[in-house]
Specification:
By secondary structure, the protein is α/β, with parallel strands linked by helices. Helix content is 43%, strand content 13%. The protein is built from ten helices and eight strands. It has an eight-stranded mixed beta sheet with strand order 3-2-1-4-5-6-7-8, sandwiched between helices. The two termini are 33 Å apart. This is 3-hydroxyacyl-CoA dehydrogenase family protein. Keywords: Oxidoreductase. One of its GO terms (molecular function) is (3S)-3-hydroxyacyl-CoA dehydrogenase (NAD+) activity. Belongs to the 3-hydroxyacyl-CoA dehydrogenase family.
Amino acid sequence: MIDGITVFGAGVMGSGIATLVTGHGIPVHLVDPDATALDRAGTLVAQQQRHGQLLGSFPGDTTFGDLTTAESTDGRIESAIVVEAITENTDLKRALLTEVSSVIADEALLISNTSSIPIDELATAVTRPGQLVGIHFMNPPYLIKTFEVVRGRQTGEAAMTAVTALLDRLGRRSVVVRDSPGFVTSRLLHPMINSAARLVGTGVATAAEVDALMQGCLGHPTGPLRTADLIGLDNLVDSLIVLAERLDDNSYRPCEALLEKVRRGELGQKTGAGFYTYDGMAT
């Protein structure tokens, strides 16, 4: 029985995780110091709940779990499961995990949602590293059926049992991988997106042409650049920089076309424009 989950970060991923969890009848307490982000997240979660319900992503007989929000925890966290879902920045994640790990229960499960930062690197910031496990929640998490679970060298058996039980409760398949920069999915997907963006930036093809070829010829479900817009181009750039630095391989460096989009604030669906435009979809 899961009584409730605390999620830190009211951005795209935090809201999507909250949608997935509440959609399966589990209450979520969403924490973010930005009151505007919390208001926006409340609206987004309600929209995504309706969308997921229409697509049959949630059990038909389940009442949605309550969503509550707060700008801080006031130093108290009672949930047995805590998810960190803030921006893909090592220093920010480590600072938050240090704070959270000092006030959660000894047996609580602490999850970091990361697409590229090694769990072993984050584990040095927490009080009890055996509690920490990584999940790479794909966006949108309420529609994706399989998640990458990252076990650090110090992650304990109790944490692995708890995270497996959580994903089972959410109707998700978990694939456990060993810890490394970018794990499996980002090491494969992000360089492909970078290459696709480079083709667009140098005028070889348009974003729509690249995606059409990847879908029609190679079976990619949405195309790499529409996927990039869904991930968020700022998040993608952050992840590519982590990969380049941690792997000492400059081929992972984000190309100029991606960097220019980020400089212009064209971050994908969440801002209404990226490689594509999204009328009325900016969040």
